[in-house]
Specification:
With 356 residues, the chain is of the alpha/beta class. It is 29% helix and 26% strand. It is built from eleven helices and 18 strands. The strands form four sheets. Strands 11-10-9-8-14-6-15-18-17 form a nine-stranded mixed beta sheet, with helices on both faces. The chain is globular and about 70 Å long. It starts with a helix and ends with a strand.
């Protein structure tokens, strides 16, 4: 069992190489072992390209006969954008398949298929780590809505700006580099129109040199300035508005190449729940909210936030703008308890990573 865990840990680390690139597919790694030696490796690089198992078997060649395969997610057993992996695994002569976790996709039944075809199988090895790796995929498959991360950079007393609105930069360069890495791992970054008007952000992963995600702006009255930074790459921009926005303004944005999503109106604002459903239909599997206190509280109250990254700098601002707006909480015992919190230092700052 020790060697199973060792090889599965290596498989999960290999799968991680596809972070930010495989959506709407999961991150999958595969290692093929024979007589205690790794004879084949592969990881899924992009949706529509060969799966990790196929790449690992190609790498192993004839050495795959009578080998043990390690894969962090149940191999596919159905025709999708590519042929089923289970058929190829049987054809290659693999003897045993060790699997990290079941695939939440009900069309996938690779574990039972392989068993039925006479292969030895084990499932649930380092399952917790395998599930954490693909938490966005798991939610997306089950709900058809993106996995939503909320990122906050604040002072240790919970402020994201001073009383005058100044906010650059509260956290250290190390924390900003970490955020840019996070940006490259998600499909889209989302802000509210107030952030665009006040900060004119670029929302790119320029400090990390990773994939540049889509940008989403919640803008109920279409106030987005035509010369703002986000409009420099209009095909990378999605503007979400309500049915109260003028048709003329919508058309102007569309002519520039911007995708406009019209949602239901909730108290005159973009209905974030409706927006997430529409983003899910566009195969956007993960969204990171990097907005101000208003959009943060709206997202939490709508029950949309799955995970938070709270960066706290060792600074005191005092009377400034709070990180999260009104949640309607009057008593401490009604506060929202974060689940499975993990804390670590990033440069001089403290990072709290937790689920809601």
């Amino acid at each position: 069992m020790i060697s199973h865990k060792k090889y599965m840990d290596m498989t999960i680390k290999l799968a991680e190489k596809g972070r930010g690139l495989t959506s709407p597919n999961p991150m999958v790694g595969c290692i093929i072992v024979k007589r205690g030696r790794i004879v084949g490796k592969g990881y899924h690089k992009k949706a529509g390209t060969e799966h990790a198992e196929i790449l690992a078997m190609n790498d192993a060649g004839k050495k795959a006969i009578n080998s043990t395969m390690y894969v962090n997610l149940e191999p596919c057993s159905h025709w999708g954008r590519t042929p089923p992996c289970t058929e190829k695994i049987v054809e290659a002569g693999v003897r045993e398949v060790i699997i990290g976790m079941r695939d939440p996709n009900s069309h996938v039944d690779g574990h039972l298929e392989l068993k039925f075809r006479g292969l030895k199988t084990k499932i649930g090895i380092l399952e917790k780590q395998a599930k954490k790796l693909n938490e966005a995929y798991i939610k997306y498959v089950r709900t058809k809505k993106p996995f939503v991360i909320m990122k906050v950079a604040m002072s240790v007393d919970g402020k994201i700006a001073t009383k005058t609105g100044n906010s650059k930069y509260i956290t250290s360069r190390d924390a900003r580099m970490y955020v840019h890495k996070l940006r490259s791992s998600v499909d889209a970054i989302m802000v509210g129109i107030n952030t665009v008007l006040k900060d004119n952000p670029r929302l790119t992963p320029r400090l990390f040199k990773g994939k540049d995600p889509l940008k989403v702006v919640a803008d109920s009255k279409l106030k987005i300035p035509k010369n703002c930074n986000l409009m420099k790459e209009p095909t990378q921009l999605i503007v979400a508005t309500t049915n109260h926005a003028s048709k003329k303004s919508i058309t102007k944005l569309q002519q520039k190449g911007v995708r406009v999503i019209v949602t239901r109106s909730r108290k005159g604002m973009v209905d974030l729940e409706d927006l997430m459903k529409q983003l899910g239909r566009m195969e956007i599997m993960s969204v990171m909210i990097e907005g101000g206190s208003e959009i943060n509280s709206s997202a939490i109250l709508s029950g949309l936030v799955d995970k938070v990254y709270l960066f706290a700098a060792p600074k005191l601002i005092g009377n400034g703008l709070g990180a999260i707006g009104n949640l309607g909480i009057r008593k401490v015992n009604r506060a929202i308890n974060l689940k499975h919190p993990e804390t670590r230092k990033v440069g001089k700052d403290l990072l709290i990573e937790a689920h809601i």
